Amino acid sequence: MGPGIEKVEALDEGHFIRVEWEDGRESRYPCVWLRDNCQCPLCFLPSAAARRLLFEDLDVDIVVKEVAVADRKKISITWPDEHASEYEAEWLKKRCFSEEARAEMQADLFLPECQYWGSDLQLPKIPFEEVMYNDESAYKWLCALKKVGIVLLTGAATRQGELIKLGHRIGFLRLTFYGPTWQVQDKADANNVAYTNGKLCFHTDYPVLHHPPGVQFLHCIKQTAAGGESEVVDGFHVSNKLKKQNPEAYQILSSTAVDYTDVGMDYCDFAVHCKQRIIDIDSRGQAVRINYNNATRDTVFDIPVEKVRPFYAALKEFNDLLNSPEHKFTYKLKPGDIVTFDNWRLLHGRQSYPSGSEVTRHLEGAYADWDVVMSRLRLLRKRVLKRD
């Protein structure tokens, strides 16, 4: 049974509607918002779930003419121009403007719960085939990816193309200057430090793009016998540590625009330049994205000379925290493993490995945007949990 309406009345000379629910709670709705969100066929297109009402036709000072309850399950409103609107009780209740209701709706839409970790990470693992062909497993995968930031898919075929399939499973992959997918292996005249056999320090991929890829996939096709271990660290967890330990360093890294560059030839020729803050924060000062890649940090640095050394000191402290044994988790991919992780939150690295006369280590990589991943997650949740 959905929520029932006990009583409805106009307040503030008709600028607000107050709804009293059967459970004794109440909600207040501004009339301008109600008129803006009229669900009738003239104002709303159900097939697109989109508003038809033009903003220039909206009176921001509108007041209600008449309001009534219909069967305790909806309210009906007549506006001064005699336009009639109806609003279902359940629809209204979900959109209540109370702090509690707004927080509940935001949590339902964006799943902000975050499970922080360090070297104690219990790496979630799910068989690749289950994710591909079972909705419950795919939903479990994406929920863990959002909450923990990393999930290992096991048992994929050891050939190129498996990530293309995974991309189709969520929707589509992100095309970049390195192609729809890219091959991580030791290459002559490498156009990226990842395409060498050297150690890769902790980094996020592609901060040189204004909108870096949100999710990264790495499929192990061939693994070297010695070396080549993967390392990950929870950037949000470490950022919180830095904020407590050295608020000034946190402030510097979350406010200084750092120049990044990537120039070369791969899928096509490219010359990319961008400015990013190492720690992107929201209005509450909470980290929402890490943009740190020492390899592509530019020699150009567009800040006053006296601020350069304090920036380096702040970045050194952050980097030291990233590399602290208590924060980093080390594992070694096996052929057929696909590691999927949050590129806005996790920083990843790799230990060096010996070079050989032939390719000894081969990973295929791909990206996806969080918009695509979250879209699939919501659709799977609706299907699996049978929610409206």
Automatic annotation (TrEMBL):
Domain TauD/TfdA-like: 117-367
Enzymatic reactions: 4-(trimethylamino)butanoate + 2-oxoglutarate + O2 = carnitine + succinate + CO2
Catalytic activity, EC: 1.14.11.1
An annotated GO BP: carnitine biosynthetic process
Keyword tags: Carnitine biosynthesis, Dioxygenase, Iron, Metal-binding, Oxidoreductase
Molecular function GO labels: gamma-butyrobetaine dioxygenase activity; iron ion binding
One GO CC term on file: mitochondrion
Sequence ranges assigned to domain Gamma-butyrobetaine hydroxylase-like N-terminal in this UniProt record: 13-92
Cofactor: Fe(2+); L-ascorbate
Pathway(s) this gene product operates in, as recorded in its UniProt entry: Amine and polyamine biosynthesis; carnitine biosynthesis
Keyword Metal-binding among record annotations: yes
Function of the protein: Catalyzes the formation of L-carnitine from gamma-butyrobetaine.
Record-stated family: Belongs to the gamma-BBH/TMLD family.
Official protein name in the record: gamma-butyrobetaine dioxygenase
Organism: Scytalopus superciliaris
Gene name of the encoded protein: Bbox1
